[in-house]
Amino acid sequence: MTGRARGNRPVQPSRFDAGRFADLAARRGLELGLPLEVLDRTTSTMDAAFAAARAEAPHGAVVVAEAQTAGRGQHGRAWASTPGRDLTFSLLLFPRLAPAAVPLVALAAGLAAREAVAARVAEPAAVKWPNDVLVEGRKIAGVLVERRSVGAAAAVVVGVGLNVETPRFPPALAATATSLLLAGATDRAREPWLADFLVAFAPRLAGLERGAAAEIVRELAAHDALRDRALAVGAVRGHGAGIAPSGALLVRTSDRAIVAVSAGTVELLANDDAP
Questions:
Q1: What is the mean pLDDT of residues 99-116?
Q2: Cα–Cα distance, 246 to 205 (Å, whole number)
Q3: Nearest partner of 58 among 28, 94, 23, 88, judged by Cα
Q4: 3-state secondary structure string across the chain
Q5: Residue 214, Cα to own-chain centre: how many angstroms?
Q6: Distance CA 190, CA 164 (A)
Q7: 91, 161, 201, 224: which has the fewest C-beta neighbours closer than 10 Å?
Q8: Cβ atoms of 172 and 263 closer than 8 Å
Q9: pLDDT at 88 exceeding the cut of 50
Q10: pLDDT score of 265 more than 70
Q11: Dihedral class, residue 166 (left if φ above 0, else alpha if ψ from -120 to 50, else beta)
Q12: With a threshold of 0.85, does the pTM exceed it?
């Protein structure tokens, strides 16, 4: 990756087209994605989706925002996006899942986002536990999943941020981030990408609801960006050893023990730094 768009030029910023998306949803028979609300600005699509839940929005509703003033990623990190150029949205769900299965929703969403990205770029796309989609080792999308009680129900919101038209990143991110533009994608329209994500996510969510978590873990094994990579998660250091049925990251330590890590920030290490 050179950090340049491979012959592509950014398109002019434009508002997400709700009408175009509705047409796509009807033609493709989407199970999720409607109603869809497009906001010019909000604090966070996550907050907007939970507010929609309190206002009795149905399972499958989506909130898209062109700009967020307090967008957030995993562990409270800020998520920045460029209005009209990137895609930030949250999907409201009322799934038939136990609270312990919620981490698997993030992995299912990551796999769906990976699939939608992989259909548009030539280089392999992978999922980095617990919530990133990478192309050539650079982050192109992030997933955040939160669960809250809304009245008598449990609402789960899946937030996704996708770098679409970003032609360059600030120096602190240039080595670790990419976009569909920089990855050489010629099909970068946001409405079809969202439709593709929802088409890919729906059967994975249905699988989790019927107790088929093993299918998600098995699929992730083929697209695991951390497998056999030297890494550290807090005090745990070793090499990625896959994903547990619970959705936890498995780390093989220097004494060959396998440690399951349920939460934390993954730091990739040089092999010389690994135990």
A1: 95
A2: 15
A3: 94
A4: CCCCCCCCCCCCCCCCCHHHHHHHHHHHCCCCCCCEEEECCECCHHHHHHHHHHCCCCCCCEEEECCECCCECHHHCECCCCCCCCEEEEEEECCCCCHHHHHHHHHHHHHHHHHHHHCCCCCCEEEECCCEEEECCEEEEEEEEEEEEECCEEEEEEEEEECCCCCCCCCCCCCCECCCCCCCCCCCCHHHHHHHHHHHHHHHHHHHHCCCHHHHHHHHHCCECCECCEEEECCEEEEEEEECCCCCEEEECCCCCEEEECCCCEEECCHHHCC
A5: 20
A6: 8
A7: 224
A8: no
A9: yes
A10: yes
A11: beta
A12: yes
Reading the block at residue 76, the tokens are 């409270």
pLDDT at residue number 84: 77
Look-up of token digits 């997400």: 16
What's the rounded mean pLDDT across residues 253-258? 94
Beta bridge partners of 268: 231
Residue type, 162: L
C-alpha distances in Å from residue 70, one per residue of 85, 133, 173: 18, 21, 19
Q: Strand 62-65 vs strand 36-39: parallel, antiparallel, or unpaired?
A: parallel
Residue 18, token pair as written in the block? 């709700």
Token pair for 160: 């996704």
The per-residue pLDDT for range 57-79, each reduced to its tens digit, is 999 999 999 999 876 555 455 55
- Is residue 192 predicted with pLDDT exceeding 70? yes
> What's the token pair of residue 79?
């998520």
Q: Please give the Cα distance from 43 to 45 (Å, whole number).
A: 7
* All residues at 6 or more sequence positions from 144 whose CB lies less than 8 Å from its CB, including other chains: 46, 72, 73, 74, 79, 106, 131, 158, 159, 160
Query: For 110-168, how does the pLDDT look when each residue is reduced to its tens digit (9 = 90+)?
Result: 999 999 999 999 999 999 998 899 999 999 999 999 999 999 899 999 999 999 999 99
Q: How far apart are CA 89 and CA 45, in angstroms?
A: 6
